[in-house]
Amino acid sequence: MVGSEAAPFAKTGGLADVITGLSRYLASQGHDVRVFLPYYKRIAESGLEPPFVEHGKDIEVRCGGRTIRFSLRAGELPGSKAKLYLVDCRELYWRDGLYTQDGDEALRFAFLSRAVLETCQRLGWAPDVLHCNDWHTALLPLYLKTVYQWDKLFARTKTVLTIHNIGYQGMFPDSVLDQIGLNDHRAHVHHGDLKDGRISFLKTGVLHATKLTTVSRTYAKEIQTAEYGMGMDELLRTRSHDLSGIVNGVDYGDWDPKGDPLIPHQYSQKDMSGKARMKAALLARMGLSYEAKAPVFGVVSRLTSQKGFDLFADSIPIYLQRENMRLCVLGSGDAHHEKYFQWLRDTWPTKVGIYRGYHDELAHWVEAGSDVFLMPSRYEPCGLNQMYSLRYGTPPVVRRTGGLADTVQMWDPKAGTGTGFTFDEFSSHALAATLSWVFKNWADQKGWQNLIQNGMAMDFSWQKQGPEYEALYRGLAGV
Ligand code: ADP
Ligand code: GLC
Predict the structure, then answer these.
(1) pLDDT by residue (tens digit) across 84-98?
(2) Which CATH architecture has domain 273-459?
(3) In sequence order, what DSSP letters do the residues of 317-337 get, joined into one string?
(4) Given the CA of residue 384, which atom of ligand 1 is nearest to it?
(5) Which of 111, 122, 50, 40 minimizes the C-alpha distance to 83?
(6) Which CATH number fits the domain 14-249+463-477, given the four candidates 3.90.700.10, 2.60.120.10, 3.40.50.2000, 3.30.420.40?
(7) Pocket lining: 282 vs ligand 1, CB cutoff 6 Å
(8) Is the shortest distance between the CB of 18 and ligand 2 below 6 Å?
(9) Which atom of ligand 1 lies at the shortest distance from residue 331's CA?
(10) Rounded to the nearest whole angstrom, what is the distance from the C-alpha of residue 16 to the centroid of ligand 2?
């Protein structure tokens, strides 16, 4: 399992949760799972210093006319038997963030793929499947077919590439081909952007991986359309028989109010008293007054255009003016979104609380202490927060796209069915109409409790979702 993030060591979004959750599940089923991750500066600074692997020091890799050295550290993924390999290469990974705008960004992640293959060679270990995630590791299938083609060790190794977000493709000037040691293999790099002097990691991965997956059934269909494909729809259509959508699982070991160590008041479907206490605790932490009757709307998100916060402009202020409500926002990202939320806070200081930044514990508090979770995404490959909020008894408001469409059903008060509130059109108007509907339903607390119970009963565990990956791997390995 290869990727640029893995919880709890290196995380900016859901990718980290999925890599860890899926690996834990697979290991629990008896598979030999080994997770590869760069040994980022921040991991080292957190005090995690697993020992070097025997003969794993100063491994030399020839890459584009020069030699780069890395050392391999090995530990265990917490709560699991899966092995964790950390690629220790200070020259490349000793930076402030996980991702950078530096001139060697392409090399930083291309090198990760190389380090994985070099490690397998040194260990004499041939995986049945190398599972790559997003653009960062998307060149691995090509390296396997070119630079490492001579090595019989990999004769039976297949590759899976999972697209977690097609909005990030790893696009670089083609001059990096030299740096990353692929100049001689130019003919195998996806041709689409070469004539414009660029290469795309993700497109090249889509071209060469044995199988492709993405993280929900709906998104698998959407990315084959011009509207959602971000320039890759045509290529994906040519591989549609190899592409499937598998909805992400949830690691309820980390995300369940019943045993969540990060919240002070735990609760369950049977005893919800802790939820009211969490609401009071969250509001106090955000500097807002508590009123049982005023619904708390929560946001935990990267603040990017993907997440649909542009729709707030002509909807949320209407309700902040009219209704007795609270809004608690945890997030960071694009400056104009951050500024907008600050403006909401400044304008309605008794109703809006924000925390700008990344805060793992507070994310759990917002899930638990809110009454409604807002996630009006423009596009959403899967989304984890809506599934977390279902389990925390916090019905989500979502736009019916990608994984949101696959995991949230519209609440029908008459039938007593459904788990949240959904809308289709990407417009402030559609969001505003949905919020009216939310307030109407909030007024009927008996129905609301029913809605909460429906959501909490949903099961998106890896025990349920993981077997789909196992079936895919088994098909590839022929076992
Ligand atoms: P994405 O991967 O697109 O960001 P997901 O819903 O799949 O969206 O996953 C987001 C993950 O990142 C969740 O675990 C969420 O709690 C976490 N997260 C997002 N923003 C923050 C933040 N500011 N502080 C803490 N956790 C965050
Ligand atoms: C991406 C997507 C998100 C998905 C996550 C994990 O960051 O934006 O929808 O849940 O990856 O697959």
Answers:
(1) 999 999 999 999 999
(2) 3-Layer(aba) Sandwich (3.40)
(3) HHHHHHS--EEEEEEEE-HHH
(4) 6
(5) 50
(6) 3.40.50.2000
(7) no
(8) yes
(9) 23
(10) 9
